[in-house]
Specification:
The protein is mainly alpha-helical. Helices cover about 70% and strands about 0% of the residues.
Length: about 180
């Protein structure tokens, strides 16, 4: 029930986008190219934006709507900044070979969220956001940062990691305010 992908970037952008869907497993991390890392990272952030937009549109609790607005704005900004770095360094995002499974898991999360309403939606949305951000943080720190070769990409990942941790803390706090058990 509480499956997500944040996997993209794992691929959870390709990073948020993992745990089934949030499972930030990528094929042989040591073999990832910077183009694949870029794709995973962008996809994960895009997945978070898509989920956040649902939170804004369908959330009933103010905390859910506020969370959606924060995540949509912040991750959209991250995407824009990262795309600029990619252009500056001539890196083209390239989908990893197992990306279809990541997209399928993400679609399942979106479909599950769209099938819910009211407090049931709020609970699922916040739970997915916790799972996504935990997976995203793990993906960036344990897979992408140790693997990335381009220093500008590494610098960006290091720079945004504290913001993703802040998002997680804010999401956990929202779950407490809404009496939603912390997703493990």
């Amino acid at each position: 029930m509480y499956k997500s992908i944040f996997t993209i970037v794992g691929l959870c952008f390709v990073i948020s986008a993992a745990a089934a869907a949030h499972d930030p497993k990528v094929p042989d991390a040591a073999q990832l190219t910077d183009g694949e890392i870029a794709y995973i990272y962008l996809q994960a952030n895009q997945f978070d934006v898509e989920e956040a937009e649902l939170g804004i549109a369908r959330g009933t609790a103010p905390e859910v709507k506020q969370h959606g607005e924060m995540v949509a704005n912040d991750h959209s900004g991250v995407i824009t900044a990262f795309e600029g770095i990619l252009m500056e360094h001539g890196i083209k995002p390239t989908a990893p070979s197992d990306n279809a499974a990541t997209e399928q898991r993400h679609r399942a999360v979106i479909d599950s969220l769209k099938a819910r309403s009211g407090t049931d939606f709020d609970r699922e949305y916040i739970t997915e956001a916790i799972i996504d951000h935990r997976a995203f943080i793990a993906l960036v720190s344990e897979t992408l940062l140790p693997t990335v070769k381009e220093p500008a990409l590494a610098a960006h990942l290091k720079e945004v990691l504290p913001a993703f941790k802040k998002h997680l803390a804010m999401t956990v706090e929202a779950s407490r305010k809404l009496n939603i058990p912390d997703a493990k």
